[in-house]
Amino acid sequence: MRPTITMKLWLCFGLLILILASVGAVSYLQIDRIEKDLLQIVQIEEPLQEAILEMEINVGEMAGAVLNYVWNLEPTDIERVRDSEADFERFAARFDQLAESDEEKRLAQEVAQLCAHFKMLGDEMTMLAGQRHADLRLFTKNAKEIDQFIEGKFRQMIHRAAPNAVKKMEAALSMEVNINKALAAIEAYVLQPSPARRKEIVDSEADFERFEAMYRQTGLSIDEEMCLSQIDKDFAEAVKAGNEIIEITDKLDELIKRFEMNLEKIDMILDDQIQPLVRAATDRATEDAKSSAATAAAVLLVMTVFGTLVGSFSALSISRGIIKPVKELAKGAEMIGSGILEHKIDIKGKDEFRHLAGNFNQMAANLKQSGEELQKAHDELQQRVEERTAELSEANELLRREIDEHKRTEEALKRTNEELQNFVHVVSHDLKTPITYIQGFSSALLDKHKEGLDDQGRMCLERIDASALRMERFVSDLLALSKVGKVVATFEDVSSLEIVRNVTSGLKERLKAKGLELIVEDSLPTINCDQGRIYQVFDNLLVNAIKFTGDSENPEIEIGYFDTGDFHQFHVRDNGIGIDPEDHRKIFEMFHRLKQIEDEQGTGLGLAIVERIVSQHGGQIWVESQKEKGATFYFTLAK
Question: Which of 19, 90, 336, 418 is deepest in the core (most CB within 10 A)?
Fold first, then answer.
C-alpha cells in the first residue's frame, strides 16, 4: 500500500510527537536536576552561611560582654553574655542540623567544644572579676581607716615638745604615705600587671611595717598602743586583700590570653575552614546547575534539528518554545554565578521554567540580602572596635593622671626627706660646739685640778669626758649620714684592692690585738666610685667584723669578690658570734645596736651610713648569718 499524505502527515506527526515526548522527558529530567541544585543552594547552603555569620556575630558579642564585665562590672553585660550564648547555641544547632558532609559535622562539633571551653573561661573570668572588685573595696576601706587613725588620732597624741615628736611625726607621715602608695600600686597593677608594680606593692608594705616599727621604738602611750593594734589589724587585712588582688589579676591576665586564643581559634575555624567548605558546596551546586542547563540546551538543539528535518515548521516552533527558556535560565545562572545579583530572569507562562526562574531570582535576592547583612555586621564590628579604642584611650588618660599624682607624692616625700636631712645637719652643728666646750673644760679640770679632787670627783670628770667623746662621735656620724646623698659624689676609677689595703693598714693594731687572721682575695677589681665613701664602707664593715669575732678561737675575717655581670659584688665574712635572723633588717636602721655586744663607742649609725653610700652607688647591702655561726655582709656596686 502506498503511503498517503495523511499517513505521511500522521507519520510525521507521530515522529514529531515521539520527538516532543523525548524532548519533554529529557527537559524534565534536566530541569529537575537544575531545580534540585538550586534548592540545595537556597535551602541548605544559604542557611548554612547565615548560621556561620550569626555564630561569628554572637561569639564576638559574647567576648565583648565578658571583657567589658571584667573591667567595668556592669550587670547588663552578664545578661548580654547569656543572650549571646543562647543565640550561639541555637545557630550552632541549626548548622549541625543542616551540615551534610562529615567534615562539616566534625568542624561543627569542634566549634561546639571550643565554645563550651570559651563559655567556661568566661564564667571563670566574671567570677574572678567580682572577687577582685570585692578585695579592692576591702583594701581601700582598710587603707582609709589607717589614714583616719593617723590623721585623726595619732597627730593629736603626739606632743610637739616631746623629745621623740619629730621622729614620731616622720614615722606617722611615712606610714600614711606608704599605705597610699600600696593602694595606688595595686590599682595600677589591676590596669596593667608587671613585676615592677608587684615589687612596688611589696616595697610599700615593707616600708609601712618598717616605719611602724620606728614609731614603736619611740616609746608608746596606752592610747598609741591601742591605735597601733587597730592599725596592725587593718594593715593585715589590707595585705591579705592586696595579695589576693595580685593573684586574681595574674590569673585573669592568663585567662584573658587563653580567652582571646580560644576566640581566635573559633573565628579561624568559622572563617578559614567552614566558610570555604560551604562556599565550595555552593560553587559546586551552581556549576551543576550550569552544567545541567548546558546539557539540556545541547540535547534540545539536537532534537530540534532532527525534528526540523522530520516535522518541519511545527517541530521548529515547538523547539523554540523549549530552547528559549533554557537559554534564559543558563544566562541567568551564569550572571548570578558571576556575582551580578541584581539580574532578573523574566520568563513568561506558568510552567516549571517560570517557577525555576523565580527560584533563581529568589536565590539572588537572598544572596544579596546576606551580603548586605554581612556588610552591616562588619560595620557594627568596626564601630565596636572604634568604641573600644576610645575606651582604651580614656583608660590610658586615667593611668597618666595617676602616674602624675604618684610623681607629686614622690616629690613631697623627697622634700620632707631633704628637710629632715637639713634639720639633722643644723642640729649636729649646733651640738658640736657645746660638746667641744665640755671636753675642753673636763680635760682642763683633770689636768690642772686632778690632785685636788677625790676619787669620786675624778671618776665623775672622767665619765663626763668619755660621754662628751661619745657624743662627739655620735654628732660626727649624724653629720656624715646627712652628707651622704647631699654632697655631690666624685666618681673615678680606683683599685678596690688598694682601698682595702689602706683600710686594713689603719686597723693593723686592732687586728693584731685580737689575734685575727685577715684574708683578702687578690681578684678585687678596679671600680668606678667615690673613693672616700667606699673607704668608709670597708672601714665600717671591718670594724664591725672585728667587734663581732668576740673571743672566738682562731678568729678570721675574709674579704672577697664576685662578678655578677651588671654589678660588682663584695663580701666581708667573719667567724664570730653571728647575728640573729630577726635582726638582719634592723641592724641597717639608725641607732640600732645589737644587745649581745657591749660597745660603748658605737653610735648605731655605721651600717645606716654604709647602706646609704651603697645605695648612692646603685647597689644593695644585706647580711647572711646565724647565731654562733659567723656573719657575711654582702654589698653590690653598679658597674
Answer: 336
Residues 459 and 549 in one domain: no
Please name the residue that has the C-alpha cell 575555624.
269
Q: What is the pLDDT of residues 198-219, one digit of tens each?
A: 888 888 888 888 888 888 888 7
CA distance to 462, 488, 535, 546, per residue, from 498 (Å): 39, 23, 10, 20
Give me 458's grid cell.
Answer: 675624778
Report the C-alpha gap between 89 and 108 in whole angstroms. Answer: 11
- Cβ count within 10 A of residue 422: 12
> Among 503, 514, 576, which Cα is nearest to 542's?
503
Which residue do the cell numbers 560582654 mark? 65
Sign (positive/negative) of CA torsion 235, 236, 239, 240? negative
Tell me the pLDDT tens digit for each residue of 114-156: 777 878 888 888 888 888 888 888 888 888 888 887 877 766 7
606 lies in some domain = yes
Cβ neighbours of 102 (radius 10 Å) = 8
CB 53 within 8 A of CB 374: yes
Model confidence over 432-486: pLDDT tens digits? 667 776 777 777 777 777 777 777 777 777 777 766 666 666 666 666 666 665 5
- 258 located within any domain: no
169 and 222 part of one domain: yes
Is 432 within a domain? yes
Q: What is the mean pLDDT of residues 297-319?
A: 65
Looking at the fold, whether 441 and 505 belong to one and the same domain comes out as: no
Asked if 616 and 532 count as a contact pair (C-beta separation under 8 A), the reply is no
User: Do β-strands 567-574 and 556-563 pair in parallel, antiparallel, or remain unpaired?
Assistant: antiparallel
Least confident of 296-300, 340-344, 389-393, 496-500: 296-300
From residue 317, how far is each of 18, 31, 223, 231, 323 by CA, in Å? 15, 20, 117, 106, 10
Domain housing 197: 141-252
Q: Quote the cell numbers at residue 478.
A: 649624724
Q: What is the pLDDT of residues 50-61, one digit of tens each?
A: 777 777 777 778
What's the whole-number mean pLDDT along residues 334-351? Answer: 76
* C-alpha to C-alpha distance for 449 and 324, rounded to whole angstroms: 145
Distance CA 7, CA 13 (A): 9
Type of residue found at 439: Q
CA-CA distance, 626 to 604, in Å (whole number)?
A: 21
Closest CA to 31 of 287, 329, 320, 281: 329
Q: CATH number of the domain that 471 lies in?
A: 1.10.287.130
Q: How many CB atoms lie within 10 A of CB 515?
A: 11
Q: How many Cα atoms sit within 13 Å of 496 on the Cβ side?
A: 24
343 contacts: CB under 8 Å, gap ≥ 6: 332, 335, 336, 364
Look at residue 577 and tell me if it is in a domain: yes
Residue 496 shares a structural domain with residue 563: yes
Residue in the structure block whose three cell numbers are 616631746: 162
Q: What is the pTM of this model?
A: 0.35
70: how many CB neighbours lie within 10 A of its CB?
A: 21
DSSP code of 493?
E
Which residue from 51, 35, 48 is spatially nearest to 362, judged by alpha carbons?
Answer: 35
3 state DSSP class of 568: strand
